[in-house]
Amino acid sequence: MRMPEVGDQAPDFETLDDSGQAVRVSDFRGRRVVLYFYPRADTPGCTKEACSFRDDFSAYESKNVVILGVSPDTERAQAKFRAKYKLPFHLLADPDHAISEMYGTWGLKKFMGREFMGVRRTTFVIDERGDISHVFEGVQPAEHSAEVLAGLT
């Protein structure tokens, strides 16, 4: 599926978060949402990215922004990752990569000469009306939260 672009309505979905609660992106209408896709919980790059969002969390809160992380991990793996790094935002389970496919972040990747299917690190900012206002592709995990914050006005 094609990746949503700035101005598109954000595709809605329902999945379980790290606490086993059903979550839909439409639950957050009226607030901005940072919806970030990462390959796998508790790996070096994904940990750097999650911890940078954690460290900047108060700045997001002051802007009334919700952060949601999505990966193909199970809700149990997401819960362990969230607890281990004291993440103050919810992580969403996408084990069948349906959400990643819906957002166009599931695709062919290359690593050390090997090709495989997986999540391409991408972040969408969804405005209060549910429209995509920013798309960040190929992000650098450690610097990404600052990049997203700079894009929020």
Named at the architecture level, the CATH assignment is: 3-Layer(aba) Sandwich
Cα(first) to Cα(last) distance is 30 Å
According to CATH, what is the topology? Glutaredoxin
Q: Would you identify the CATH H-level superfamily?
A: Glutaredoxin
Q: Give the amount of beta strand, in percent.
A: 25-35%
Share in helix? 25-40%
| Number of domain modules | 1
CATH class (first level) name: Alpha Beta
- By DSSP (H or I, 4+ residues per run), the number of helices equals 5
Elements, N to C (H/E) = EEEHHEHEHEEEEH
Largest sheet descriptor: 5 strands, mixed
Global mean pLDDT: 95
What strand line-up does the widest sheet have?
A: 5-4-3-8-9
List low-pLDDT spans. Answer: none
> Quick one: overall form?
globular
Number of DSSP strands? 9
Task: Specify the structural class.
Answer: alpha/beta
From the alpha-carbon coordinates, what is the Rg to the nearest angstrom? Answer: 14 Å
Description of the structure:
The protein has about 150 residues and is of the alpha/beta class. The protein has one domain: Glutaredoxin. The protein contains five helices and nine strands; from the N terminus they run E-E-E-H-H-E-H-E-H-E-E-E-E-H. The strands form three sheets. A five-stranded mixed β-sheet has the order 5-4-3-8-9. The protein has a two-stranded antiparallel ribbon with strand order 1-2. A two-stranded antiparallel ribbon has the order 6-7. A hairpin with a 5-residue loop joins strand 1 (about 15) and strand 2 (about 20-25). It starts with 13 loop residues before the first strand and ends with a helix. The model has no long low-confidence stretch (mean pLDDT about 95).
